[in-house]
Each structure stands twice: as structure tokens, then as C-alpha cells.
Write a structure and sequence with these properties.
Layout lengths: L4 E6 L16 E2 L15 E10 L10 H4 L1 E10 L8 E7 L11 E11 L7 H19 L17
Antiparallel strand pairs: 1-6, 2-5, 3-4, 3-6, 4-5
The protein binds adenosine-5'-diphosphate (ADP) and magnesium ion.
């Protein structure tokens, strides 16, 4: 697979399905920003690093978590809202943000595949799987060979 895959775009509002109530908010990337993912064309859950950058010219100091490069899990799927004709990428960053960041720039480096999409019989089963995805991601990112991607030139480094 062609990893690393670089993505960036302004965070869009999703349809508010699941996400936060599952304890797993997912930031949506705009359609035009996900074309680098068409090369993998495999739906499911991925992991990597992400960074949130506030709009330029905001007259306030940056919050620390707005510029950090943080571990993430990403779900890539066909969007039922568009009759399953459009791919959607949603990124959950493994960090407790103090506020939402709609409209902010999101940059991400996708490094690997975790699993295909599954149909869940219960909300509990879905939540349990998300927790497994997060630990798989954190464990994979511990590999020394991945450390360099946290300082990838794709990210805005201070
Ligand atoms: P939506 O349907 O609008 O995507 P969600 O419930 O999935 O709603 O929440 C996603 C939003 O939550 C993101 O766009 C972002 O502004 C905010 N957010 C807060 N913390 C996180 C996080 N750790 N990872 C991703 N998004 C987060
Ligand atoms: Mg979402």
C-alpha cells in the first residue's frame, strides 16, 4: 500500500451521527481533499498522525493542542447520504480538545490499515471496537520507524 498518504483540508460539519455521543468525535474532511485516498480504495479504519491548525490572522495565542502532531484513527467509507457514491474520510484525534475546531485546517499523514468496516449488532460492540482501534494505532505508532512521520514536512512545525 502507498503509505504514507498525505491529507489536508478545512474541517467540515458532518451529519452529527454518532461521533461525540459515542465518545469518539470524528472531524470530516471536504470531498476534494480526500482524492489521495482513492489510490487505496479500501474502506475501513486507518491510523496515523494529525494536526489541527487555526485560521491565520486570529488575534489570540495558539492553544497548545491546536498545533501538536497527535495520533489519530481514520474511518474511510462510502457515504449513504450520497447513495454510497462518495467516499468520506472522518478523523478521530486521540486527544481531549478543549473546544471544537470546525473550519480549522486539518493535516494528516495516514500510515497504515487496521481493519475493514463491520456491521455492529450493538452500540456496545461498536464502542469496544473503537477502543481496540485506538490501542492498535497507539501500539503501531510506537515503532521507531514511524517516529519520523510525527515530524513529517507535511506538518506545520514550530
Ligand atoms: P460531525 O458530524 O459534525 O462530524 P462529531 O460528533 O463527529 O460531529 O464531532 C466532530 C467535531 O468535534 C470535529 O469537527 C471537531 O470540531 C470536534 N472535535 C473535538 N475533539 C475532537 C477529536 N479529538 N477528534 C476529532 N474531532 C474532535
Ligand atoms: Mg464526525
Amino acid at each position: 500500500p502507498p503509505f504514507p498518504i498525505h491529507l489536508s483540508g478545512l474541517v467540515q460539519r458532518g451529519f452529527g451521527r454518532g461521533g461525540k455521543d459515542l465518545g469518539c468525535p470524528t472531524a470530516n474532511l471536504p470531498d476534494e481533499s480526500i482524492s489521495p485516498l482513492s489510490s487505496v480504495a479500501r474502506t475501513g479504519v486507518y491510523y496515523g498522525y494529525a494536526q489541527v491548525i487555526p485560521p491565520a490572522g486570529e488575534d489570540r495565542p495558539l492553544l497548545e493542542d491546536e498545533v501538536k502532531v497527535l495520533p489519530m484513527v481514520m474511518s474511510l467509507g462510502w457515504n449513504p447520504f450520497y447513495h454510497n457514491e462518495r467516499l468520506t474520510a472522518e478523523i478521530h484525534i486521540m486527544h481531549a480538545f478543549k473546544s471544537d475546531f470546525y473550519g480549522f485546517e486539518l493535516r494528516a499523514v495516514v500510515l497504515g490499515y487496521i481493519r475493514p468496516e463491520l456491521d455492529y449488532v450493538s452500540r456496545e460492540a461498536l464502542i469496544a471496537d473503537i477502543e481496540t482501534d485506538k490501542s492498535v494505532a497507539l501500539n503501531s505508532l510506537k515503532r521507531p520507524d514511524y517516529q519520523k512521520f510525527a515530524v513529517d514536512s507535511h506538518f506545520q512545525l514550530s
